[in-house]
Specification:
Layout (H helix, E strand, L loop, with lengths): L11 E7 L1 E2 L2 E7 L5 E2 L2 E3 L6 H13 L8 E6 L8 E7 L17 E8 L12 H13 L3 E4 L2 E2 L4
Parallel strand pairs: 1-7, 6-9
Antiparallel strand pairs: 1-5, 2-3, 3-4, 3-8, 6-7, 9-10
């Protein structure tokens, strides 16, 4: 007999960090697919999104730091990958740590500061609205609840 739990959502959960320097954001290029993104990745079982973000920053950039405040959470199911729940935290000010960035060399091969108005040249159509909204949340001091990168205004 089916249990009510059979209908519970089991999304893939990911977490990343947005580093901002004026009107630029830090992007990293993944070695697979030549795809640009913010530093981050999937949350492991038993790990919180903030813990995953910290782990990913350490693994991908060689930076050991706690993520800052939550900027956005995005409900963004993917047609081929199922339900997804994506968290973007503030990466804070890099300051002198910028010189200490050491890419892992396996998943990432490049990083750079990208002007916000040039994100369309770097990011795919699914990711771009989420990063733009995270940048807006960073500047406004609020957190946003998104669905497919668009603020949820139903509440």
């Amino acid at each position: 007999m089916p249990s009510p739990a059979d209908n519970f959502a089991t999304p893939r959960v990911a977490a990343g960090a947005l580093f901002v320097n004026g009107d630029r954001v830090l992007l990293v290029r993944k070695t697979y697919g030549e795809r640009w993104d913010i530093p981050g990745g999937y949350v492991d079982r038993g790990e919180s999104p903030a813990q995953a973000c910290r782990r990913e920053l350490r693994e991908e950039l060689g930076l050991d730091r706690d993520p800052g405040r939550l900027l956005v959470v995005d409900w963004a199911p993917h047609p081929n990958e199922g339900d997804k729940l994506l968290f973007v935290f503030s990466g804070g000010d890099l300051g002198a740590d910028e010189e200490g960035i050491q890419l892992d060399g396996e998943e990432l091969d490049k990083w750079e500061w990208v002007e916000v108005d040039q994100l369309t040249d770097y990011l795919n159509q699914r990711l771009q609205p989420r990063i733009l909204r995270a940048y807006e949340a960073h500047n406004s001091g609020i957190s946003l609840n998104l669905e497919h990168g668009v603020p949820d205004t139903s509440h």
